[in-house]
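Whiteboard transcription, Tuesday session. T.W. wrote the structure tokens on the left side:
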């Protein structure tokens, strides 16, 4: 079951939908100007959704993301004369969707906005109205300013993927390959469950990567680190652009940032346990580490010099470069 979020009248619901749509539109020009990145006209629609709508969108995207992975896994276990059947793929996809739905029911109350890569459909920017409404009231900030602040971050993600044509497919392919590498064979499932029971405290420790710390081999962790470096870049860049634009168009940006950061620190109880298991604390590190990388590179070579990062997959930062931006500057700029 998914909580619907704050109780509002139809008029209030219509008001926040309209306000978020307006904030998303207003954020486009300042983000493009600050990031010095420009998207084709009409790329990626903006959808204002409720929590069930966010779940539906993400389950669809996750199924699309994992269907080729499932097909590859089944192909490994079939002889050439017995290719994986459509029924097997369909059942597997439904199982994946059911499991994803349970996970998404938890996440659906946490996400304010998201750029949905939609592997087999049209990518779009999702803004989760109930969560924005709940958060702005919970942390006590100006609603109009907070909505625009959220949109600045999410609009930066939209620009990243629409102004850099190869980036979306590169991230999809990387995620699919990583999923295939991490998927255990059925014969190993008992061993994996035993590892889970033995090492669960490690997955719950502060600063870890959640369940991947248990199930991943050293080689897989290296692949995870590469994908994590890309995510750190994307999240850090969005945070930097949001903060650079903020003072000009969001009057209370400093208050919002302070209150929002405090909210991140105040998570406790079951919520904290689930966040650690799912690696959500690692995501918060992505914001911090990625932002430090972006700031350091921009200070050294300027915004246009930083934007060389979007040239090709080869110019994306490696894990060690996120930690030491000077290494990336030397590799890319000489």
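and on the right, the sequence the group agreed on:
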């Amino acid at each position: 079951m998914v909580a619907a979020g704050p109780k509002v009248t139809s008029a209030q619901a219509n008001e926040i939908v309209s306000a978020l749509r307006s904030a998303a539109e207003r954020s486009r020009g300042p983000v493009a100007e600050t990031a010095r990145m420009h998207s084709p006209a009409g790329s990626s629609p903006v959808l204002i959704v409720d929590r069930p709508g966010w779940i539906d969108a993400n389950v669809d995207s996750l199924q699309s993301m994992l269907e080729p992975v499932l097909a590859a896994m089944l192909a490994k276990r079939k002889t050439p004369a017995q290719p994986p059947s459509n029924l097997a793929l369909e059942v597997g996809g439904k199982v994946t969707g059911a499991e994803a739905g349970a996970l998404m029911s938890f996440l659906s109350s946490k996400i304010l906005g998201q750029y949905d890569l939609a592997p087999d459909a049209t990518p779009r920017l999702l803004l989760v109205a109930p969560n924005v409404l709940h958060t702005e009231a919970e942390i006590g900030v100006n609603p109009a300013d907070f909505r625009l602040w959220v949109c600045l971050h999410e609009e930066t993600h939209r620009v990243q993927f629409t102004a850099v044509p190869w980036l979306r497919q590169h991230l999809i392919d990387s995620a699919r390959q990583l999923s295939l590498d991490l998927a255990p064979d059925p014969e190993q499932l008992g061993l994996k469950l035993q590892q889970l029971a033995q090492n669960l405290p490690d997955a719950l420790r502060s600063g870890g990567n959640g369940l991947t710390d248990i199930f991943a081999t050293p080689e897989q962790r290296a692949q995870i680190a590469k994908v994590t470096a890309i995510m750190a870049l994307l999240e850090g860049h969005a945070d930097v652009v949001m903060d650079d634009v903020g003072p000009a168009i969001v009057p209370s940006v400093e208050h919002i940032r302070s209150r929002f950061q405090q909210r991140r620190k105040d998570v406790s109880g079951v919520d904290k346990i689930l966040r650690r298991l799912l690696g959500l604390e690692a995501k918060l590190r992505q914001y911090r580490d990625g932002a430090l990388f972006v700031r350091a590179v921009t200070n050294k070579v300027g915004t246009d010099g930083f934007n060389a990062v979007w040239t090709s997959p080869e110019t994306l930062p490696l894990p060690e470069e996120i930690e030491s931006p000077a290494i990336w500057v030397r590799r890319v700029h000489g």
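Someone added at the bottom: Residues 87-97, 268-278 have pLDDT under 50 and may be disordered.
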